[in-house]
Design goal:
The protein is an alpha+beta fold. It has two domains: 141 residues, 2-Layer Sandwich (Fructose-1,6-Bisphosphatase, Chain A, domain 1); 112 residues, D-Maltodextrin-Binding Protein, domain 2, CATH 3.40.190. The strands form three sheets. It has a seven-stranded mixed beta sheet, sandwiched between helices. A five-stranded mixed beta sheet has the order 11-10-12-14-13, with helices on both faces. Helix 5 packs parallel to helix 6. The longest helix has 22 residues. Its cofactor is Mg(2+). Keywords: Magnesium, Metal-binding. This is Inositol phosphatase. GO terms for molecular function: inositol monophosphate 1-phosphatase activity; metal ion binding.
């Protein structure tokens, strides 16, 4: 979608930074203060949630509603149906709750703005690293205000790729085929994908990410020319009214088309029918 097709909420990276920066800083500081001091509850789906998840969700939803009343909100901890409005926020207030609850300093706040179901703003706030990555459709992406370039990645045995927990099964399904590089598993879908965009990893294979896990990172990867390959259903454009709490979007992200081909066998193994 060209920038000229966007309506009232379209802003530049610098404008979004001014508008939302203080809010995301506030939430990040609260999360850092709570880190290591909270216990977690178990949700119906077996995942964890803390009081900090709930507070972060409530604070972000309140502020986004006030600053952009024309946009609906879809949140992991709140409304799971894509709102009917042309503009909709997609929010994961604390992606990596298991890490957060277990004292592992690796998590993110993931925020995306969709226009007619397509991400036009992607924002990843990474409190433990004090990093902020913002992308606007057609404008590229920045890290802490500095413009990011497309990753220049080459397959070497010492390079790294990431697998999520549930995609580790591909190593058994292709046990006769050596994996082409080193493996890393960080436990945060948005940051696994971001690692490809930043040139930290060559590829990322995600088995069961939800739309709030991937919406922000998706646009960041697109703006940096990376490859995003849905392995089943494509997440975008999302349709108003879609109930997304139980819908997953297996995908392969790669720094370029050559690397996509290199990791394609493991992506195929993830979704291949098992006899």
């Amino acid at each position: 979608m060209p920038p000229t097709a966007l309506a009232a909420l379209q802003r530049s990276i610098s404008e979004w930074q001014k508008l939302l920066g203080p809010l995301l800083t506030e939430v990040a500081q609260r999360q850092l203060a709570d880190f290591g001091h909270l216990s977690a509850d178990t949700k119906d789906d077996g995942s964890l949630i803390t009081a900090c998840d709930r507070w972060s969700d409530a604070r972000l939803v309140e502020a986004l509603t006030q600053c952009c009343p024309q946009a609906g909100i879809l949140s992991e901890e709140g409304n799971n149906d894509l709102p009917p409005q042309p503009w909709a926020w997609v929010l994961d207030p604390l992606d990596g709750t298991t890490n957060f609850a277990c004292g592992i300093p690796h998590w993110a706040i993931s925020l995306a703005l969709l226009h007619h179901g397509v991400p036009v703003l992607g924002w990843l706030e990474i409190p433990p690293l004090q990093q902020r990555v913002i992308a606007v459709r057609g404008e590229g992406a920045t890290l802490n205000g500095s413009r990011l370039a497309a990753p220049r990645a080459t397959l070497r045995p010492t390079s790294c790729a990431s697998l999520c927990t549930r995609s580790m099964v591909v190593l058994q399904r292709l046990h006769q085929r050596p994996f082409p590089c080193k493996l890393r598993m960080f436990g945060v879908a948005s940051l696994n994908l971001l690692g490809v965009a930043l040139g930290q990893t060559l590829s990322a294979l995600e088995c069961t990410p939800k739309i709030w896990d991937i919406a922000a990172a998706w646009l960041i990867l697109e703006e940096l020319g990376c490859v995003l390959q849905p392995l089943l259903e494509a997440p975008f454009p999302a349709r108003p009214g879609d109930a997304l709490a139980r819908r997953s979007y297996p995908l392969l992200a790669a720094a370029n088309a050559e690397l996509q081909l290199a990791f394609q066998p493991w992506a195929n193994a993830l979704v291949a029918p098992q006899g």
